Amino acid sequence: MAAVEPSTPPLLAMRGVGKKFPGVIALSGVDFTVRAGQIHALLGENGAGKSTLIKVLTGVYAPDEGDIRLASQPIRPASPRDAERLGISTVYQEVNLIPTLSVAENIGLGRQPGKFGFLNWSALRRHARIALARLEIEVDVDAELGSLPLAIQQMVAIARALDLQAKLLVLDEPTASLDEKEVDELFKIMRQLRVAGLGIIFVTHFLDQVYEVTDCITVLHNGEFVGEYPTAGLGRLQLVSKMLGREVSDEEGHAAEGGRSAAVGGRPSSETTVPLLEACQLGRRGAVHPLDLTLRSGEVTGLAGLLGSGRTETARLLFGIDRADTGEIKLRGQPMKISSPRAAVQKGLAFCSEDRKTEGILPNLSVRENIIFALQAKRGAWNTLSRAEQGRLCTHYIQALRIKTGSPETPIKNLSGGNQQKVLLARWLATQPALIILDEPTRGIDVGAKAEIEQLIAKLRADGVAVLFISSEIEEVVRNSTRIAVLRDRRKVAELSGGEMELHRLLHEMAGVAKTHE
Amino acid sequence: MSEPRHRSWLKSPALWPLAGLLLLALVNLAFSKEFFSLTVRDGHYVGAMVDIFKNGSICLVLALGMTLVIATGGIDLSVGSVMAIVAAVAATLLQQGHSLALVLVAGLGVGLLCGLVNGLLISWARIQPIVATLVLMVSGRGIAQLVTGGFQVRIDDTHYTFLGNGFLFGLPLPPILVTVLYLAAWLGLRRSATGLFIEAAGDNETASRFAGLATARVKCLAYVACGLCAAVAGILASSDIKNANPLHDGLNMELDAIFAVVLGGTALSGGRFNLLGTYFGALLLQTLTETMYYDQVRSQVAPVPKAVLIVIVCLLQSETTRRWFGGLFRRASA
Amino acid sequence: MNSLFRQRLPQLVTAGIFLLLFAAAGWRYHEVNFASAPNVANLFIGNACLGIIAVGMTLVIFSGGIDLSVGAVAAFTNIFAAVLIEKHGMNPLLVILASLAIGTAFGAAMGALIHYFKQPAFLVTLAGMFFARGCAYWMSTDSIDIHNELFLKLSRDTAKIGGDTIHPLPAYVFLVVLAFGYVLAQHTRFGRNLLAIGGNEQSALLMGLPVGVTKIAVYALCGAGAALAGLVSTLVSGGDSTYGIGLELDAIATVVIGGTLLTGGRGHMLGTLLGFLIIGTIQSAITFDGSLSSWWTRIITGALLLGFILFQRLLLRATQKRLP
Question: Fewer CB within 10 Å, N or C, chain B?
């Protein structure tokens, strides 16, 4: 821990923090220490507990156990407002300001200067200008916030946060929608604040940014504390391993290189067959840089990368949810315009979204209706599936996927996450797709269901379906894929197949470090 | 017309308005024996219950269209104004001596057009339903006045007035027509997948779109259907009173229609809809009105109990109330 | 400067439309002195009730809500005051205070239902409209002439302008209410909180603004405005329980034509004055013309409403497109 001077007393000390939700242990025994004048990265994959920890700190959730000290004083923030009063200010990815009001008002809202209840507009503007000048931001304080670039909005949010006499600034994925220049601006401000003695917690998915700006890293995995490391002393590969919950050093990694990993997906790929779908230089500004991707029938293409590396964004482009700025898609060799999910479904594509709740289930409709929905939508309103056909499909899939439901008529919202996921898979299988995109199909479901979904993927491959498989668990990707495309920071950086598909090689590519032995 | 997916009719949401209807009927029975009396005069059935069906038919048909719109998660405030436009067009055309067929086609066509305007504003221009339908609500009566030249128009055509005043099998024609319309709508929606598509679009629009549904088209269609229903209501209303009054036709009817849908158990947030529930909801509303007529309450005061009823129903359905009740039960069991 | 221009674009467009309309009408009807001071004064007097209600409606719409009950509430206080003063001979000042208190309490009650039970504003205020209108009919269905001395004295108060005699009191009330609304909206925390809630209620909560109190208070204010408009209408034309049917729609149209975003969060009280002037000018022009029928007011209002809604939508889309 050389980067941290041990003499400095910690600004924030969270000890043994635990938080349970019904059925889930979100945090258990997590320690987190931030010192004044330090930029501290909080890292972890999905479900690691980052956001829960931040919410405990900012008073959104009350912790079940553990204690929190700010400048040695025990605190227990009861609301975000309470946390702000204590000196903990948060800036979120989706800026929590009022887009329709001016910059000056957004900085001053709720504590505008004035007398007898009347506002003093010139004092408000002056105050805002000072707050912005402190961050060396040049922006018209009368401009409507919503008309400014997101980066500026982000900085206005920081200006407001600091205006509250913050001691500790939490930046929750502030760079997710910024371009490189804007990120540089933000980092400049963060460094200034560090010099001014603030503690900064920086939550991000971008490893380059972690190494560029932070002093210290705390890693969480599955709600547990993995460790606290000085940034300078932790290699990328080690960091990625820790984030993925794997304890491997570089040496160990090389040692394991010789032995074949547990992969079973290393089937020889038939390069001679016409690819089902080819994407050439497909890209969208702010989502993913132009990339090539070829998907073949009877193959599982894994899409690996850390959270925020552009995996879901790629899937959305393929399925016509977002419009691509560049590139084209060929389906069975024919150039094809996929302008909407509807067009994609008509052409035999299927997309199982990672966000089950908002993009997947029709919560109040029955399991039966959820299963037949995509097929029915594909057939149109008048070419109705008879009740008998619907019943047959339901019975078939409920048995085949072992969906646990009281009856096919139960509303899907009453099912467990794993069973909901299976219903959604059934929905897409019923359309007999030529290509199925599975975005994190195993997230948030129990081990048994996970194994069943992996079996299903193998069966789909055997049946000649093209599968695009996206997962945060790299073992899963390696196990199930025929080839793997690796994304890092919204770029495709490698495509692995055959013998290359092996855990440590994949880790290296995801972390962006050259393999030393090659 | 029971929903086939509900194995047990006890679970049907239509049960609540039906229970309310029966309760109200019982109250009436307690106070006046005449309420359930049914006499035959000139070969026609006469009585309070017949009146409820006849006078309720306009609210019934409006509520049918409104159910579909609300199921998509929207609202249509313009139905009252559309009624006025359609009545004005029909009456004016009749006065100019056009054939009944042409008048009916023109009336329905106008309703369809109004619905299409609403639907396009909402699905294509992506304007909020309340805001979009407000435009026609504001200007509709002006358009109706424009059509009639600002006057009320008397309707003499006996074929046309038969629609609102005629009898079939001794029963008034409007409720029969409307009931047939409900049956047709139910068959059309449930035999085809249209009903499912409407419910899906209202339940989770994003998920429906991602599953390959043309949600914009479905939503637009619901408003067109609602416009058509408003046209039918406008024709029935003007045929009943043998008059088209641009300022008064369908005034505040959008409220009755919305209330009937809410009473019928279709949530304002969209999703599952229940035509049978709406049917009973509209009848419940009308029974309430008729009850007050029977009890010599001035007809103009009728909105008060209606408003109270609707607020109570909404409060009972709200999350806050459910949490309170949930809390009470938990405390009671603990 | 550019951004400020963008922000105020709707109001500038409204101002432009008003100037064009007024100039056109003034030129077209110059023989009958359309642009004369008495006519302009009469425009204010004749539409004063609409204006008073529109001020309250502006505040409600700022917060992202809507109040459809205003016409009915105005009708209730109109007949309530007339009945109490004429039939029961009560003290007019007491009646005025009671009417305002009822309007305020009614608005606050609706606001509480909207906020605490999370019911849609349009539904609650629709029910409120039914309720208030029914209560108005319950008070009396006859129209009632006012013979009370104080009321007569107030309504006969005259002023001379450009050689014509007018009864300016309604216009004074409107202008005072407008000034109050302007200061409230532009120069108090309450007003800015309204816009913040309309802009993004969730953020407003996170920023620690008193969302609940503000929302309830704004419906209470709007109810008070409607009650005041009802009293003014009693003063002008006596008690009539059918007063103000459709007035809520005119008020909403006034606000939206004044460049206020109907979904909340953006707008200016002076825009409402411009919207008021536009609707007044159209009405006045149609009256002066003689050959144009009164319903054109509604049709043109509807067309302007549609135009403004689409225009605001485009503006929003253009802003979003500029962002990455």
Answer: C
